[in-house]
Amino acid sequence: MRATAIIATLDEAETIEAIVAEVRPHVDEVLVVDGHSRDGTAELARGAGAQVIEDRGRGKGDALRCGIDAATTELVVFIDADGSHRASDIPRLLEPLRTGEADVVVGSRTRGGSDELHGDLPKFARMIGSDLITLAINYRFDVRLSDSQNGFRAMTTAAARDLDLTEDITTIEQEMICKALWRGHRIVEIPTHEDRRRVGESKIRVGRVAPRYVWCVLRYLAGPGLPPGKARAARFGTVEQRP
């Protein structure tokens, strides 16, 4: 089963060439979805061998949805452009999909460690918020995830398209998990280490996005959020943790 790496970018000229080079040996297609960068990110990505498309300018979630629509392979893996995820972990994320044991595989920073979630108050706030959301998901669906927010994850392309994703920003990560569980998809969690981003600081502003995170988790805990005409019986999926 062939795989596409989807990398959402916004002004990542300092890292994108290295990220594309690190990812290419592990997938069949590298798709950079650029958020209208002004620093030459798209051109550098093309030069490094990636296919580049533009998103609709709404945020990371919008970029990932564009990537899912454009992927031409059976599997997709999402990896950030800041260098915090290790491309060498991609085969481990794809393996349960290729063996048919899972529909969604999530890299866990809680189990694998993170250099990015510690050190100052904004990072502390992000970590606490992430843990609270994961706790709510676990109790709602009677599962035992350790990290519902990590963007480093892989899915079958069919499962990704089945979720009817709508979130435009980073709340898409928790939307993916909730909808996957509602629809009965099998989730496998694998420990992955998160390195400190190579350049600059995170573009996430906790105070600005916190209300959307709260609204999103309440909305998708309450129900699968299926569009009209696609309602189906809710059925909870499963979560398995792997070493």
| Total DSSP helices | 9
CATH topology: Spore Coat Polysaccharide Biosynthesis Protein SpsA, Chain A
| H/E series | EHEHEHEHEHHEHHEHE
Give the full name of the CATH homologous superfamily: Spore Coat Polysaccharide Biosynthesis Protein SpsA, Chain A
Structural class: alpha/beta
Radius of gyration: 17 Å
Distance between the termini: 23 Å
- Shape type: globular
Largest sheet: 8 strands, mixed
CATH architectural label: Alpha-Beta Complex
Strand content: 15-25%
- Helix content bin: 25-40%
Q: How would you describe this structure to a colleague?
A:
The protein is α/β, with parallel strands linked by helices and 243 residues long. The protein has one domain (3-241): Spore Coat Polysaccharide Biosynthesis Protein SpsA, Chain A (Alpha-Beta Complex), CATH 3.90.550. 39% of the residues lie in helices and 16% in strands. The chain is built from nine helices and eight strands. It has helices at 16-23, 41-47, 60-70, 90-98, 109-112, 121-141, 157-162, 172-182, 206-222; strands at 3-9, 29-34, 51-54, 75-78, 104-108, 153-156, 186-191, 238-241. It has an eight-stranded mixed beta sheet, sandwiched between helices. Helix 6 packs parallel to helix 9 (206-222). The radius of gyration is 17 Å and the shape is globular.
